[in-house]
Specification:
Keywords: Endonuclease, Hydrolase, Nuclease. With about 280 residues, the protein is α/β, with parallel strands linked by helices. It has a single domain, classed as Divalent-metal-dependent TIM barrel enzymes (TIM Barrel), CATH 3.20.20. It contains ten helices and eight strands.
Length: about 280
């Protein structure tokens, strides 16, 4: 199976989904990963396709004209008091666009509540033929690989998966060998990026790098080769936001260089791997 790549929305978040799709096609991607669920962060654009019917039609047109597919939508956050049904309009849109997965992360310390809501999200997603991909984030409540594995094991849902982001894996100081213990069928997609080897001491600096200063593949110090050798061959979603570079290069050229760095790195480092 050939390597497949998705352009993650955070890499070019200023671009609405139709624009992102055309950029992904021209840059050589196979998929797009879009964010129709706004996280409510300062200055973040809102691409609520469930309510913006014009943009939804434009996105469908872009997908049809380019042949690009939607890999996943994001982000179904589990926070205190949340109701999984609030994400159903986005799930419906995701299914309408042909998405396969929904990213999920946990931001409440009540893990009994979080596990219950995760199960409900999976049940809801199943009606739309979507999987829920649990992502551990070093600044969230589910912050480590072990915590994510514990929740997935407790939830025991057949449409749940583990979504690893190479940035988060490194920042959480994970051991690559622990990936050998993960069931292969938990892996459906992977967030690929690079970053400096040095781990920021402050939460604020980590968030800034996470959202604004990730690096081309092979440019930083994350042990990407070692990580990818321990997981099946799955689509790589390139989540590599870098505000200064996109400002200098423009979104399309920057996306093209992100993809080029990933392909070159994998060709040089992983062609000899017997991926299962």
């Amino acid at each position: 199976m050939k390597d497949q790549f998705s352009l993650a929305h955070l890499t070019a978040l200023a671009c609405p989904p139709p624009t992102l799709t055309y950029i992904a096609a021209r840059a050589g991607f196979d998929f797009v990963s879009i964010r129709p669920i706004c996280m409510g962060l300062k200055n973040e654009p809102d691409y609520n396709l469930a309510s913006n019917k014009k943009m939804l039609r434009q996105t469908k047109t872009a997908l049809r004209e380019t042949g690009i597919q939607v890999l996943d939508i994001e982000l179904a956050k589990i926070v205190d008091g949340m109701d999984p049904k609030q994400y159903e309009p986005a799930f419906e849109v995701g299914a309408e666009l042909g998405a396969r997965h929904v990213l999920c992360s946990v931001w409440t310390d009540d893990l009994v509540f979080a596990t219950d809501r995760f199960i409900q999200l999976c049940e809801l997603a199943k009606t739309y033929q979507l999987s829920i991909e649990l992502e551990f984030v070093p600044v969230a409540s589910i912050a480590t690989l072990a915590q994510a594995v514990t929740m997935l094991t407790a939830a025991a849902q057949d449409n749940a998966g583990l979504m690893i982001d190479s940035h988060h894996f490194h920042r959480s100081k994970e051991n690559v060998n622990d990936l050998k213990k993960i069931p292969a069928n938990w892996f459906h997609m992977f967030h690929l990026c690079d970053a400096s080897k040095e781990i920021p001491a402050s939460r604020e600096q980590m968030i800034q790098i996470m959202r604004e200063e990730r690096l081309y593949i092979g440019e930083g110090g994350i042990p990407i080769k070692e990580i990818l050798r321990e997981i099946p061959k799955i689509p790589y979603s390139l989540e590599i936001p870098h505000l200064q570079r996109t400002k200098e290069l423009g979104f399309e050229e920057y996306a093209r260089r992100c993809l080029q760095s990933a392909k070159e790195y994998i060709s040089l480092n992983l062609d000899d791997v017997n991926i299962y």
